[in-house]
Amino acid sequence: MREKETFINILPEYGRRRLLMFADSIRDLAASFGDPRPLDTNETTQIAENSSETRRDILWQRRMQENKILMADHLQEVAQIMAHVADESRRFTPINQRRYKQIAHALKDINLQLKNIYIMEKENGFMELSLQIRSSKGGNVVTVEEIGDIISVLLNKRLTPSVNNPFFIDQELKTFYYVETPRFHVLTGSAVAVKENEKISGDNYAIFETEPGAYSMIISDGMGSGKKASTDSQMIVELMQKFIETGYKKEMAIQMINSVLLAGPEAGNMSTMDFCTVDLYTGTCELLKIGSAPTYIKRENLVERISAGNLPLGIFNRPDMDVNCRRLQDGDYIIMISDGVLDALSQGIGEDMMAELISGTDLKNPNEIANAMLNFCIRQSKGKVRDDMTVLVMGLWEYNSEVS
Fold first, then answer.
1. Is this structure's pTM higher than 0.85?
2. What angle do CA 248, 366, 395 make, to 5 degrees?
């Protein structure tokens, strides 16, 4: 007999109401900025011709109005995130008594006590499981991975411990979470070369898990080289990672980062952004590019080049974002590079030469691929490193396939 499914809010009702009240107050605050439309271009041009002081005043008014628009957008985004969290719910399915007794008995055999267990359906349709357990006094040390293996067998579903779980089960009653193992898993690699006569790279990158079942890579190439370029690109990488992990939409996160660059004390705070996210449940890959070098997707000997013709961050108030989506398959590779890699190749044909290089490689390990590409580019430039170079590689495999 199928157990009755119920939808339960993640937050208790009191906390949910308070969060929704906070969201409404933030929306009201955003609305208090009114409708700060920019000044008419023809009008400001005519006025600005009168004196340099008037021009400065108008430029200042423009900046203030643009900041008001940006602040209102930020507040609306925060309110939307709070409302989403307040109304977030999960479909809970209480486990049937026969299966519950099987799991409780299996855990008892290794001196663990089971109190509750629930099966939840996540927003993407995949399963998440929570169980309350504790270790009996004097029992052996048991890890969350061992528990996951046992439950996977009993439920006939491969489960992976959530990254927020404690590693060991102790005598304190705690709730442990497991997620359905994604269809794919990834291996990543990187290779970096610093520009000659510089001590620090103007490129920065990160590879991280945005949420269970989703991996991201990001490269930012700061304008110029050295410490100033590194500071700008590092800020972009760190802020983007924090915003995405917090729950901001990519577009709003990028808009906020762009505003930080524009508000900087120095002119010319320009940096590229190359951001890639892969859903390991579906194999969907989203590529978001702003002024960055091409990204390459390798499938056996076929290579697709994905380029963008837009400008870097820190130039316009509303940055132009180029977004591409692809469906990946078992054995595919994603190769992301900074501009310095292509600049090292000869005669301005770097993009085509890079595609041929990727197509011809028989290497399987992402780290070996990244290093081989970087070494090839350095050899092509006769050992000279004229600009910072970064290569990131992500390989995708299904769990039931072998990686040689």
1. no
2. 55
